[in-house]
Design goal:
Shape: globular
Strand order of the largest sheet: 3-2-1-4-5-6-11
CATH class of one domain: Alpha Beta
Radius of gyration: 19 Å
CATH architecture of one domain: 3-Layer(aba) Sandwich
Bound molecules: nicotinamide-adenine-dinucleotide, 2'deoxy-thymidine-5'-diphospho-alpha-D-glucose
Largest sheet: 7 strands, parallel
Helix content: 40-55%
Length: 344
């Protein structure tokens, strides 16, 4: 069994590579990654010498490189994590999101049609459903919730999802799609809420909460997401979409306060800054289908997962210090440097 994992040098993809190599020692795992700002080879250093693992630096939009890789490896299953993944960056520059997230997906599926595979799995997001109102806690995203996106990022992911379903219907490609809620855990890139707040708090820097911080996200420990994808590619029904989430909704401001408490830092570090444009209010997944059909349940409680995650950032300083010492500084200055305060 050979599995091609795209975007495996990023946050969730790398955790998936580790999960698969450990659980299936006889599988061959081939990782293809462009190594954008979000991809780090240092993340994969512990598996680089594993004879069952191969890393290939390539862009999923590069048809020639992808076809050549399919010819060499003849993968059975493709799991596509490769994407531009940060909403704020998509608001600044949408184009690369459309290229990688939609056209890159098309190139991968064309390769699947040309060379033949048993499964193409698209790693999608709950953001394709748009958002839910704060005053309707009874509402959740199901697989039947209409696609209704807010940001260029979520629109590009929704475009890819539609294309994946079209390749199934039109060409009979054996596809599955998972739509997961917010992940957290080791190797999460510092631009995202939880690692950003941990790293800033450790340096006693301001903690920039967008607007009032009342927006709700539904947090899932990354390993639970990896187990869900593992189940879907082995046991999921072709042509189906599976929502993945653990009913763990939290307001942003409460997450940031919790991080302050865990690190012994004062809440006075919290700075309310101008809101994200088009900011989604609430995400909340109904995971009934994946539980009922595949028996999936989350295993890590948020209290344990956030503790493990904070410990990981405390013990892996070299990983994130290297990242934040480079271009990240320019990004941070551009995003937060002149950002107005938000009055609460
Ligand atoms: P990430 O930004 O940490 O990693 C993305 C990886 O893709 C990086 O290694 C990057 O180098 C690579 N990549 C980007 N463009 C590429 C290209 N053109 N060709 C090859 N590789 C390329 O992202 P993540 O948070 O790990 O997310 C992975 C996937 O999961 C994405 O598809 C995202 O939409 C989806 N997702 C993420 C979350 C979350 O909370 N992080 C939740 C649900 C779904
Ligand atoms: O829901 C799944 C999605 O979760 C994935 O598809 C995306 O790839 C992933 O990036 C994530 O998107 P979010 O926009 O929810 O994540 P982010 O970490 O950027 O922000 C989480 C919340 O925190 C959001 O309401 C915005 C807020 N925020 C974020 C940052 C970076 C702040 O208040 N301050 C910040 O500095």
């Amino acid at each position: 069994m050979t599995i091609l994992v795209t975007g495996g040098a990023g946050f969730i993809g790398s955790n998936f590579v580790f999960h698969m190599l450990e659980k299936y020692p006889d599988y061959r795992i081939v990782c293809v990654d462009k190594l954008t700002y979000a991809g780090n080879l240092s993340t994969l250093k512990d598996v680089m010498n594993n004879p069952q693992f191969r890393f290939v630096k390539a862009d999923i939009c590069d048809r020639q490189a992808i076809y050549q890789l399919f010819e060499e490896e003849k993968p059975d299953i493709i799991v596509n994590f490769a994407a531009e993944s940060h909403v704020d960056r998509s608001i600044e520059n949408p184009e690369i999101f459309l290229q990688t997230n939609i056209l890159g997906t098309q190139v991968l599926m064309d390769a699947c049609r040309k060379y033949g595979i048993t499964r193409y799995h698209q790693v999608s997001t709950d953001e394709v459903y748009g958002d839910l109102p704060l005053d309707r806690p009874d509402l959740f995203f199901t697989e039947e919730t209409p696609i209704h996106t807010s940001s260029p990022y979520s629109s590009s992911k929704a475009g890819a999802d539609l294309l994946v379903l079209a390749y199934h219907r039109t060409y009979g490609l054996p596809v599955t799609i998972s739509r997961c809620s917010n992940n957290y855990g080791p190797y999460h890139f510092p631009e995202k809420l939880i690692p950003l707040m941990i790293i800033n708090a450790l340096a006693d820097k301001p903690l920039p909460v967008y607007g009032e911080g009342l927006n709700v996200r539904d947090w899932l420990y990354v390993e639970d997401h990896c187990r869900a994808i593992d189940l879907i590619i082995h046991k999921g029904t072709v042509g189906e979409v599976y929502n993945v989430g653990g009913h763990n909704e939290m307001k942003n401001i409460d997450i940031v306060k919790l991080i302050c408490e865990k690190l012994g830092k004062p809440e006075s570090l919290i700075t309310h800054v101008a809101d994200r444009k088009g900011h989604d209010m609430r995400y909340a997944i109904d995971p009934t289908k994946i539980h009922r059909e595949l028996g999936w349940l989350p295993e890590t409680k948020f209290a344990d997962g956030i503790e493990k995650t904070i410990q990981w950032y405390l013990t892996h300083r070299e990983w994130w210090e290297e990242i934040i010492s480079g271009d990240y500084q320019k990004y941070y200055e551009k995003m937060y440097g002149g950002r107005e305060q938000f009055m609460v």
